[in-house]
Amino acid sequence: MAYRNAKDEKVLLIASYRERYTSDALQEITKIIGEEEPDKIIISKIIKENSEPTIFKAMVGKREREVLNKNLTNEKKRQADEISSDLVTLVRSTDIPSEVHLRKCKEISKEIVEESKKLEVSKVIIHKQKRNGFERLMEGSVAQSVQSKLPAQNVITLE
After folding, report:
1. pLDDT in tens, 78-102
2. Residue 46: Cβ within 10 Å count
3. Within a 10 A sphere around the Cβ of 91, how many other Cβ atoms?
4. Of the four listed, 17, 27, 62, 102, which is most buried by Cβ atoms within 10 Å?
5. Are strands 123-127 and 11-16 parallel, antiparallel or unpaired?
6. What distance in Å separates the CA atoms of residue 51 and residue 67, rounded to the nearest whole number?
7. Could you write out the DSSP letters of every residue in 36-91?
8. Domains, in order of start, for the chain
9. pLDDT at position 1, please?
10. Is 41 in contact with 12 (CB distance < 8 Å)?
11. Which H or E element spans position 105?
12. According to the model, what pLDDT value does residue 53 have?
């Protein structure tokens, strides 16, 4: 029997971060939606918030930092919209109620885990990044971190 939350809903969370899902992954998502038959789909667009370097704080005034940070945030929102556009189109083409959440965080995997627990989702779909070994070493793998913190049967990782 499929897991249902307190509202007796079967909720599918699809995390969108850093890069687009490939066309193969989008086809796989379509298949998963058909198999899982969720009552609701949530697309979580996640923006990673980087902390300001100390030297930046010392060299730039507070007002200028606020303006710059606002511009950077707006650019990251635009990028998140662009990265998730194919996914949003796919989900909206179904008859399943959906929501799009925009999340800003310091650690992507932690945000995915917290949101999935808070919303009591049945399944979480994430993707592996196409990053080189050094980038993975520096930032860690979002997929591995999420898989280690949620029950394996609740996480679907796509290439």
Report:
1. 999 999 999 999 999 999 999 999 9
2. 24
3. 22
4. 17
5. parallel
6. 15
7. H--SEEEEEEEEEPPPPPHHHHHHS-HHHHHHHHHHHHHHHHHHHHHHHHHHHHHH
8. 11-158 (3.40.50.620)
9. 39
10. yes
11. strand 98-105
12. 60
